[in-house]
Specification:
The protein is an all-alpha fold. The protein has a domain of 203 residues. Helices cover 74% and strands 3% of the residues. It contains 11 helices and 2 strands, in the order ααααββααααααα. The chain has a two-stranded antiparallel sheet. Helix 3 packs antiparallel against helix 8. It is globular and about 65 Å long. The model has no long low-confidence stretch (mean pLDDT 89).
Length: 293
């Protein structure tokens, strides 16, 4: 191997790690919702695409950077997720899984078509000055937007960890996830905690969408791809594990970047699904998941 190839490989790995942090934040929302409610959000990618569109609209019509509009988008998504869970999803908790699937699939279709009506099928992106900037560290060159997005994702993940481990509400949510009946016995409002959890998960996805629009343009047809990608990440990392979601995002981000260098960019999904199959064969519960036995 030549020095130039090794440098290109290291550069691709670095790029994959930065993108993987945003992937991890996206998957974190799915993992949190499943870990607490045991509901698989099949509208996950669609929610993220809506977040990308909101960030694009803020930049296009209000000249507000996606980084600045991110807190507002996360707050909007929290409120929308809370209301959606209380009004629509809550009656389906405890019902057969196929009914939950059909409900969330219907929500996904509604969201995609709403995006088509509002923005059309063409790709939409933001053009910021920082997209042409980069940072140098020795022989490595980092895209500024990817570095900013990755750093923001790390900060949000850290705040989420503090919320679940240090606050009363976060501890109550964890208690409801570990023992639903016990939480009811001690007087916890489990329905409200479930709605709060769905709101937190939706806020993570919305924030990830605001970060992702700075990296790639958005179309409504990306939704299914991101839903599938989120499932791959959380299954590889371990369903319900926050650490697993972040680690899975990093692993998939690096695998896609390296596959784009060594093979072709169009084959990056093949490598991701290859990793998924390998993990399912060797460790079905995921890298950080708990075994059911």
């Amino acid at each position: 191997m030549t020095a130039d190839f090794l440098l290109s490989l290291a550069q691709a790995i670095t790029k994959g790690l930065l993108t993987g942090m945003v992937y991890g934040l996206m998957a974190l929302g799915l993992s949190v919702i499943f870990g607490v409610m045991r509901v698989v959000n099949f509208a996950h990618g669609e929610i993220m695409v809506v977040g990308m569109y909101l960030a694009w609209m803020g930049f296009e019509y209000l000249q507000v950077s996606p980084m600045l509009s991110l807190p507002v988008i996360a707050l909007i998504f929290f409120g929308a997720g809370y209301a959606l869970q209380r009004v629509v999803i809550s009656p389906f908790i405890g019902r057969p899984e196929h009914q939950q699937f059909l409900l969330l699939l219907a929500i996904a279709i509604l969201l995609v078509n709403a995006c088509l009506v509002v923005a059309g099928p063409d790709s939409r992106g933001v053009q910021m000055e920082s997209q042409f900037d980069s940072y140098e560290l020795g022989p490595f060159v980092f895209d500024a937007v990817r570095a900013h997005a990755a750093l923001t994702a790390v900060v949000i993940a850290g705040l989420l960890w503090l919320f679940f481990t240090r606050t009363r509400t976060g501890k109550s949510i964890r208690a409801a996830a570990d023992n639903n009946l016990g939480a009811l016995v001690v007087g916890l409002d489990v329905r409200r905690l479930y709605a709060f959890t769905f709101g937190v998960g939706a806020a993570c996805v919305g924030a990830a969408g605001a970060l992702m629009i700075t990296i790639i343009p958005v179309t409504p047809f990306l939704a299914a791809e991101y839903t599938l990608l989120a499932f791959v990440i959380v299954i590889v990392g371990g369903l319900g594990s926050m650490t697993g979601a972040l680690a899975g995002g990093l692993l998939i981000g690096v695998s896609e970047a390296v596959a784009g260098l060594l093979l072709q960019p169009s084959l990056k999904s093949m490598v991701s699904f290859g990793i998924l199959i390998l993990v399912l064969l060797l460790r079905p519960q995921g890298l950080f998941g708990k075994s059911s036995t």
